[in-house]
Design a protein that fits this description.
It is built from 21 helices and 3 strands. By secondary structure, it is mainly α. The chain has 2 domains: about 150 residues, no CATH class; about 325 residues, Neurolysin, domain 3 (Orthogonal Bundle). Strands 1-3-2 form a 3-stranded mixed beta sheet. A hairpin with a 2-residue loop joins strand 2 and strand 3. Bound molecules: zinc ion. The site of zinc ion has 4 residues, from helix 11 and helix 12.
């Protein structure tokens, strides 16, 4: 009897998971392959799939089934796959039930259409073109937030989509600590910016050569063509159709040598998380990463902790030299390592180094909170953006395409998403600290065996659990503590102190 109900639950949840994955594939196609004129039809297709998935998840039948499984859940260890499935499905169902399917479809449709307007608005640096779409997105997000009893700001309900269980106030406290330490650190390092050469990273690097280099790098990290694809796109992202079908993307800018490589490593980190979720959890709500922040901890770990290390480039630089002999024949490992870690002010988040990156994110997070607490109007965003950029980084934004229009997120309706980038940075250093204890050879003499050991360790400590535990529990299980900016700030002080020959002290608490 019990088992029939559980089988019924699994079947229903597998259908929802299939619909969501089909929608993801359509979205992947939109961003990599689809001709631009396909946008209107694609918005409808995506809205339909997401609406049907939403209706099934919110259905009264599913609610009754979950009620009937309460005893079964309580008879099982909370950590078991079955108890976790019932518990997480119930939470997802309760959340979905509050949101009308039509609102869910409207949010998808509006975001999908605005994404295309954003391309044009960014190309023309014309914020006014995107403004009505952004206003609609904010309005829809507000209506979404109102489906929940949020205490205080509607923003918390949005943040909860991406980082369940954390509040805006909690995130602000972490970010305040980052700001207090990073602003003086950046100012000190920038006084010595001439100490690092980087000219050889700029020039002409044909995209075919870059693609070859990216593949060589990815295969070293564990990209297996049987389960993975790499495609070019304007705004890199990772998507999975299944743990055995990982799609990652990057951007090949012929004037820059390493941008495509770091973007590929970033997306590899996302892909690996999805790839290593336990097969027992596939086709269920548990079969993906626990939160966007944890996802970002994985992409940033591969992009920065591994990707910007001496150990990686000791292995990789000879291959890169062979691909671009003219530009790199005389570049030594130490110079290359310093160049890819150079701190440099830029108005663009995606180009930011590890030290300045978080301020780009904090700025967006603070503007989002103001938008949703009502103290900032959408039409005033460009001005507020530019003022904040000036205040935090001393950067004058040349035009909207390099300012408020540079990222797709808000056009796509994703408010509450940005802070997960900086939370990911913080968690990446906490996880790396533990990984170094277990695999001490992850240093300057990195080998392919160490990379494999790291992959396995991450799979065991973090990836395999998928969404069984809350984001907070998942982090605690991996590192033994909750969110803590300490290891991340220590890592930045030590790394940039060494590169720039400075004694960087922690800020007074
Ligand atoms: Zn990412």
């Amino acid at each position: 009897m019990e088992d029939t109900r559980l089988a019924d639950l699994r079947r229903r949840l597998a259908e929802v998971a299939d619909l969501e994955k089909a929608a993801s594939l359509l979205s992947w196609d939109q961003q990599t392959m689809m001709p631009r004129a396909g946008a209107a039809a694609r918005a409808e297709q995506l809205a339909t799939l997401r609406r049907v998935a939403h209706e099934r998840l919110a259905s009264a039948e599913l609610g009754l089934l979950l009620d009937a499984l309460v005893d079964r859940e309580q008879s099982l260890p909370p950590d078991s796959d079955e108890a976790s499935l019932i518990r997480v499905a119930r939470a997802d169902h309760e959340k979905a039930r509050r949101v009308p399917a039509e609102l869910r479809a409207e949010m998808t449709r509006a975001g999908s259409l605005a994404r295309n307007v954003w391309l044009e608005a960014r190309a023309r640096a014309d914020f006014g073109l995107l403004l009505p779409h952004l206003e609609l997105n904010v309005e829809l997000c507000r209506r979404y937030a109102d489906c929940f009893e949020h205490q205080g700001s509607p923003y918390d309900a949005l943040l909860d989509i991406y980082e369940a269980g954390r509040t805006g106030a909690e995130v602000q406290a972490v970010f305040d600590r980052l700001k207090a330490e990073l602003r003086p650190l950046i100012a000190t390092v920038l006084e010595h910016s001439e100490a690092v050469e980087h000219d050889f990273l700029h020039g002409y690097f044909p995209p075919e050569g870059q693609r070859g280099a990216a593949m060589s790098l990815l295969e070293l990290l564990g990209f297996d063509p049987a389960s993975w694809r790499l495609d070019p796109t304007a705004h890199p992202f990772a998507m999975s159709g299944a743990p055995t079908d990982i799609r990652i993307t990057t951007r090949f800018d012929s004037s820059h040598l390493t941008e495509s490589l770091f973007m590929a490593m970033h997306e590899f980190g996302h892909g690996l998380y999805e790839h290593q979720v336990s097969p027992a959890l596939w086709r269920s709500p548990l079969g993906r990463g626990a939160s966007l922040g944890l996802h970002e901890s994985q992409s940033r770990l591969w992009e920065n902790l591994v990707g910007r290390s001496r150990g990686l480039w000791r292995m990789l630089l000879p291959r890169l030299r062979a691909a671009f002999p003219q530009q790199l024949a005389h570049v030594e490992l130490e110079d290359f390592y310093r160049a890819v870690n150079r701190v440099e002010l830029s108005p663009i988040r995606a180009r930011a180094d590890e030290a300045t990156y978080n301020l780009h994110v904090i700025l967006r997070f603070e503007l989002e909170r103001e938008l949703f607490d009502g103290s900032l109007a959408v039409r005033d965003l460009p001005e507020a953006w530019n003022a904040s950029m000036e205040n935090y980084l001393g950067v004058t934004v040349p035009d909207a395409s390099q300012g408020v229009l540079q990222d797709v997120h808000w056009a796509a309706g994703l408010f509450g998403y940005f802070p997960t980038y900086a939370l990911g940075n913080v968690m990446s250093a906490q996880i790396w600290e533990r990984a170094l204890e277990q695999i001490p050879t992850l240093g300057d003499r990195l080998t392919p065996e160490d990379i494999a050991a790291l992959r396995d360790w991450l799979g065991e400590r973090l990836h395999r659990h998928g969404r069984k535990l809350t984001p907070r529990e998942t982090l605690e299980r991996a590192v033994g503590s909750d969110l803590d900016p300490g290891p991340y700030l220590a890592y930045l002080r030590s790394k940039f102190g060494e590169i720039y020959g400075l004694q960087l002290e922690p800020a007074a608490a």
